[in-house]
Amino acid sequence: MDSLKTQTFNKLDLPIMIGLKLGPVRINAGPVGSLLINSPKDLISDPDFKAMYANLTVGYQAGLGLDILKKLTIDLRYEGSLLKYQNQIENLAGSKISLDDRPNAFLMSIGYMF
What CA–CA distance (Å, rounded) separates 86 from 99? Predict the structure, then answer.
């Protein structure tokens, strides 16, 4: 029986957000580029594995923020992809398999302003 293997992808998000501030509430949205910063080679034996994955994928982020007492900031955003399948790999039989690598995630941040 084959053992279960996992693959980790580390990406750096580069958002360009446009927003509107309504008192203590902020609304923002915009495109985001996700840059692959590690090598996904653990499960792939092909020597040209880097060509199988797009180094930069494009998506979007949209969210709300709240400033509390001009010191604390809380933001909640949703991130999604503009393309359903951005990468493909080839299996041992030579068939191409599309990878659904959409980030689809909720992001929350809390900050303190000084």
Answer: 7
C-alpha 33/C-alpha 60 separation (Å) is 8
**Higher-scoring residue by pLDDT: 39, 108:** 108
Q: Which amino acid is at 41?
A: K
Both tokens assigned to 23: 């008192």
Cα 54 from Cα 99, distance rounded (Å): 11
pLDDT, one tens digit per residue, over 72-84 is 999 999 998 876 5
Tell me what percent of the residues of the chain surpass a pLDDT of 90.
36
Q: Which long-range contacts (CB under 8 A, 24 or more apart) does 23-29 make?
A: 24/66, 24/67, 24/68, 25/64, 25/65, 25/66, 26/64, 26/65, 26/66, 26/67, 26/75, 27/63, 27/64, 27/65, 28/61, 28/62, 28/63, 28/64, 28/65, 28/77, 29/60, 29/61, 29/62, 29/63
Conformational region of residue 23, where left means phi above 0, alpha means psi within -120 to 50, and beta covers everything else: left
